[in-house]
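Field reference: sequence -> structure
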Amino acid sequence: MTDKKQIDKFKEAAREFECNESEKDFHAKLKKLVKEKPADKSPS
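Structure field:
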């Protein structure tokens, strides 16, 4: 099978980057990359 489908290429690339489908892991890694936006402290 020399002609890989796009989905097969994507899955292979995801494995190379050690990706998984866990939503919990996704959010944990996302929090390491992105800081939460500070709460809006505008006067009421």
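Note: The mean pLDDT is 80.
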